[in-house]
Amino acid sequence: MRTTRRRPPGYWRNLFLFGLTVLLVTFAALSIRLAHQRAMWLVHPGRSTPHRTPDDVGIAQWREVDFQSQDGLTLSAWLVPARNGATVILVHGLGGNRAQLLDDAAMLVEDGYGALLIDLRNSGSSEGNLTTMGYLEVLDVGGALAFVLAQPENDPQRVGLLGHSMGGATAILAAARYPEIVAVIAESTFTSVEDNISDSFKALTGLPPFPFAPLVVWFGEREAGVDISQVSPLDEIEAISPRAVLIVHGELDALIPVKDARHLYAAAGEPKELYVIPNASHNGLPQAQPEEYRKRIVGFFNQYLLQVPAK
Question: Which of 161, 180, 222, 265 could connect to 171 by a Cys-Cys bridge, CB 3.0–4.6 Å?
């Protein structure tokens, strides 16, 4: 006669707890793996090489140059000599290179501006093997500034910055640090690294920022060896005043929400301008509204770089 085996006391409770533990451990492992992968991509985004040169956007007078970052890395760039005494340093975004802002450079060069399009560290043809979201890239802009100031055709009172995304954050940090920078344009720029990681993680994966974003920051800092959580344009932008700043952003930017632009604008001192482009996303801002974009960008530099006493 078959007997029925009795379950030990607490069997179902223990089974439930075991299953819950497995789920939590699996979730924790996946969280750590995803956060680590994202952090490694931020610190080691991979190099891209320019697919265009200044020739492709109608710039005739330009040359390849190298200069030193303030911590001794050799960085590559294209230099277009100024014809009106003013030069704009153009700073690309994460995983980009100097070709990213060629369309902006072409607009400025047409109006007589000089342009220095740089490859940041760990990008394009420049030295370096780490990207730090603006923390050390400020030293690249410092080196670019020293290079521009040494050019005989450039008025030292007429140097501007234009940066996109991570390059925009770097431009804000650099302008706050270097008083020689007279005017700065920051496009598609985040308020802080922590905010950016939270927003972009949700946009790219659909997952909630917690616990992933804090893990991404932690892994990124361990890999980079610097406190990248301190990269906060929102905290630095006020120091640019009384020099001018223009914040540009696409209304439909899914990677860095337009609220970041409005927060940056609110935190900036005067003179400041905000230009939000309807129907524009994170990239391709010049193409979204060509005539108005040109009017705003060139007009801003005309006002704040050219309307100053000559040297």
Answer: 161
